[in-house]
Sequence to fold (190 residues):
Amino acid sequence: MVGEREPYAFKNPFRVLITTVLSQRTRDENTRRAAVKLFSKYSTPKALSKAPVSRVEFLIKDSGFYRVKARRVKEIAQHVAVHGMPETFDELMKLPGVGRKTANCVLVYGYGVPAIPVDVHVHRISNRLGLVCTKSPEQTEMELMNLLPERYWLELNELLVKFGQRICKPVKPSCSECMLRIDCDYYKSL
Fold:
């Protein structure tokens, strides 16, 4: 339950930013491996900004799409090394390759600022449960912000992502194991 959990441990905003960029279109375990390798060699924005792109590509290869991501990561590191780490949604959105989900992840996981990062899990589950009826992650984000009190925003993404990985999977969700099935639009339609 949200209220029963330990207070959230916020992390280094720059690392959250880079790790979230690495996480795009790949699995969590691939992201973790790539981030560990990258930060073991280049732990600061300044160090990463000076790294050869070919070296960054090699270190983050596990994340997939590593050539594009390496260029993005280096561009972001160069910007942060010169201008400092952005602290607002609008500032984060100005960085190369940063969209709404990434900016919101940095706010939530890096700064502890209430926001709702919407990835495929959050979008799918919110629609399946009937919390929202939306076509895009951005619409889902806006609807959830209107629907849920801000005090739940910090933990929502993590809870729904884990729920989506374990129970409400994209294909063959485990409805028989789900405590929410009684109120779930998807389950009612089966």
